[in-house]
Amino acid sequence: MRLRTLLLSIALATMAPALPALAHHGWTWAVDEVSELTGTVKAVYVGNPHATLDLDVDGVVWHVELAPPGPTMATGFTEQTVKPGDQVTAIGNRSKDPNETRMKAVRISAGGKNYDIYPARVPQD
Amino acid sequence: MEEALGAIEKLGVVQALKTSFIAYPVVNALHILAIGALVTTVILMDLKLLGLFDEMPEPHFVRLLRRIALGAFVVASATGLALFSVRASEYAAMPLFWAKMGLIGLAALNFIAFITIRNGPRRVFALVSITLWPLALLAGRFLGFVL
Question: What is the pTM of this model?
Answer without folding.
Answer: 0.80
